[in-house]
């Protein structure tokens, strides 16, 4: 039978429930259990696809084209397995389903209520993942903090599931904070006691407490927490602040989080977690041999979560290259032709980020021009690739009005234009070109060499595309479409000849980079940054020697 673990949060948000859930899942997976993670988000949007990145960080996209919470990115990066729409459910989606069924008459004239109809739908979505015995363990992270009004139906659904399945099949891991009061030089357990008390008012008691803390918890304190929160003492787990999120699985292993969960679920504990590959990665991350500096050009750079998967993919690729990647955030809104040289000259590589709308667009184009002319390694993702086409058209092909029709709907030189099937769509949310699509690469392209294959599949999230009418002109000038969708012929990758590394991709490679499988494009991009740096250093040295001669 599939076992269920729920991860709840108390005291405050941003304690890292997603990372704790992913770390626990990693340890269970490393012991040989088939594990998946699901996230419930208690907001009323049907999915986070319509949310501004400033509100909710990056929108992560799964293979099956679901627009999801960025925690699913962590789940995939840790577990190295795919998630799907079923792994992320919002209150909006639950209500939409229940209301649609009510309109179909499915409730046979009954009054439709939060209990039982909404809670039943929450329970159905949890159990759905455990169907077909695909997983030994399903971990469900409940978004929000215990005590939020909008979390109540979820707490009630978990209470019912625990009652129905019994404590050995259904476990609650509660993540909480033990603050350190500097003035008193003391760790304080009261907020944790209150948060557990609040949960117990709704009939739910945690089985395991994971306590975020800046200072180690001694045995007395653990005993106190256990006594007042009604858990066994070995179920009080210390979660000290870590220097990288990738160390958390190892720390949780030392603290025996996986072991206590398995014991409580009455599952076999004989096999130790095999984390060989994970540890190799951590070692490389910890002891880099060199350092490169990459400029991230985007309009949301002040909010790190907006580019989460890109930043993580660079960490994976850096470790693979045994090199630390320092990311310099460059706000595209404040970048101009005049400031480009000054802001970009120290960079070893330039990445132009995805995005929507016109704000900061000219800054992106200026950065791309700088990378092209100065032969700085360049990776353009989605909007970054589209703007690379616009820049080339304007500055090389002599098309001064070239643009994407997203920013300039009236231009006659729409080198990027709306996909035909998108033109009739008015509804927002889930209506872009989303999810995984095949792509065929030219055998002699840089992309094919990087992927080691001419047949790949990558995830998309966009409405606009390269206008094939201009393909010949671009190609004749050395700007080559090297990857295309085999069915629709849509251009998915462009490369510039006579440049050490200049690749634009219409898809989002960052979504598929994991600790155990860093994405080849990012690995090659960071590799190119290393080479660029070595060449620059050699040139400076030559210059220095010449002036000293
Ligand atoms: N705004 C562009 C489009 O919709 C690019 C989207 C993106 O960068 N994800 O096509």
Keywords:
single chain, alpha/beta, nine-stranded mixed β-sheet, seven-stranded parallel β-sheet, 38% helix, binds glutamine
Strand content: 15-25%
Average the pLDDT over all residues and give the rounded result: 95
- In terms of per-residue confidence, which ranges show pLDDT below 50 for 5 or more consecutive residues? none
Whole-angstrom Rg? 26 Å
Task: Bin the helical content.
Answer: 25-40%
Notes on the protein architecture:
The chain has 549 residues and is an alpha/beta fold. The protein has 18 helices and 23 strands. A hairpin with a 4-residue loop joins β8 and β9. α1 crosses α9 (248-254) and α12 packs across α18. The chain is globular, with a radius of gyration of 26 Å. The termini are far apart. The site of glutamine has 10 residues, from β19.
Describe the protein's topology.
Blueprint: E1 3-9, H1 17-30, E2 35-41, H2 53-56, E3 60-61, E4 67-68, H3 71-79, E5 88-90, H4 91-103, H5 114-130, E6 137-142, H6 152-165, E7 170-177, E8 180-181, E9 186-187, H7 190-201, E10 208-213, H8 219-229, E11 236-240, H9 248-254, H10 257-264, H11 276-286, E12 290-298, H12 308-320, E13 323-331, H13 337-344, E14 349-352, H14 361-373, E15 378-381, H15 383-395, E16 403-404, E17 414-418, E18 433-441, H16 446-451, E19 455-462, E20 464-466, H17 471-476, E21 479-484, E22 491-496, E23 502-505, H18 520-548
Parallel strand pairs: 1-6, 1-7, 2-5, 2-6, 7-10, 10-11, 12-13, 12-14, 14-15, 15-23, 16-17
Antiparallel strand pairs: 3-4, 8-9, 17-20, 18-19, 18-21, 21-22, 22-23
Helix pairs in contact: 1-3, 1-9, 4-5, 5-6, 11-12, 12-18, 13-14, 14-15
Bound molecules: glutamine (GLN).
Glutamine (GLN) is lined by residues 354-356, 382-383, 406, 461-464.
């Amino acid at each position: 039978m599939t076992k269920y673990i729920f991860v709840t949060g108390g005291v405050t948000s941003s304690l890292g429930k997603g990372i704790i859930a992913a770390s626990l899942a990693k340890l269970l997976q490393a012991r040989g259990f088939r594990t998946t993670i699901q996230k419930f988000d208690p907001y009323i949007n049907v999915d986070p696809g319509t949310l501004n990145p400033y509100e909710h960080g990056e929108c992560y996209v799964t293979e099956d084209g679901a627009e999801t919470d960025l925690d699913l990115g962590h789940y995939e990066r840790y577990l190295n397995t795919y998630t799907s729409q079923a792994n992320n459910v919002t209150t909006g989606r639950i209500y939409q389903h229940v209301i649609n069924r009510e309109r179909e008459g499915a409730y046979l004239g009954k009054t439709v209520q939060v209990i039982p109809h909404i809670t039943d739908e929450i329970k159905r979505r949890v159990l759905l993942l455990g169907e077909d015995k695909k997983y030994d363990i399903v971990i469900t992270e409940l978004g929000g903090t215990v005590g939020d009004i909008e979390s109540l139906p979820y707490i009630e659904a978990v209470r019912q599931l625990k009652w129905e399945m019994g404590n050995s099949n259904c476990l609650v891991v509660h993540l909480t904070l033990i603050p350190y009061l500097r003035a008193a030089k003391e760790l304080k357990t009261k907020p944790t006691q209150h948060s557990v008390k609040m949960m117990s008012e709704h009939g739910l008691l945690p089985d395991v407490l994971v306590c975020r803390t800046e200072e180690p918890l001694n045995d007395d304190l653990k005993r106190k927490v256990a006594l007042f929160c009604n858990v066994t003492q070995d179920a009080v787990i210390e979660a000290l602040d870590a220097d990288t999120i990738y160390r958390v699985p190892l720390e949780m292993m030392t603290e025996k989080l996986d072991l206590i969960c398995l014991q409580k679920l009455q599952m076999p504990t004989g096999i130790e977690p095999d984390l060989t590959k994970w540890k190799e990665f951590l070692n490389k991350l910890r002891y880099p041999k060199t350092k490169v500096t990459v400029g991230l050009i985007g309009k949301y750079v002040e909010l790190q979560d907006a580019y989460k998967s890109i930043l993580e993919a660079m960490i994976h690729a850096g470790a693979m290259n045994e090199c630390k990647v320092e990311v310099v955030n460059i706000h595209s809104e404040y970048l101009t032709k005049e400031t480009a040289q000054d802001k970009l000259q120290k960079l070893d590589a330039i990445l132009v980020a995805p995005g929507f709308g016109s704000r900061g667009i000219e800054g992106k184009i200026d950065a791309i021009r700088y990378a092209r002319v100065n032969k700085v390694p360049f990776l353009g993702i989605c909007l970054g690739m589209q703007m690379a086409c616009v820049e080339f058209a304007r500055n090389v092909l002599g098309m001064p009005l070239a643009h994407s029709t997203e920013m300039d709907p009236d231009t006659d030189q729409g080198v990027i234009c709306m996909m035909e099937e998108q033109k009739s769509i008015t509804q927002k949310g889930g209506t872009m070109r989303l999810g995984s699509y095949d792509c065929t690469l030219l055998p002699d392209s840089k992309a094919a060499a990087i992927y080691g294959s001419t047949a790949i599949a990558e995830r998309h999230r966009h409405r606009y595309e390269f206008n094939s009418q201009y393909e010949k002109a671009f190609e004749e000038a050395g700007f080559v479409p090297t990857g295309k969708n085999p069915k629709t012929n849509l251009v998915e990758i462009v490369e510039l000849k006579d440049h050490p590394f200049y690749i634009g991709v219409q898809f989002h490679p960052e979504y598929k980079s994991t600790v155990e499988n860093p994405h080849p494009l990012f690995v090659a991009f960071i590799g190119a940054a290393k080479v660029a740096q070595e060449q620059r250093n050699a040139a400076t040295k030559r210059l220095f020697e010449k002036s000293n001669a």
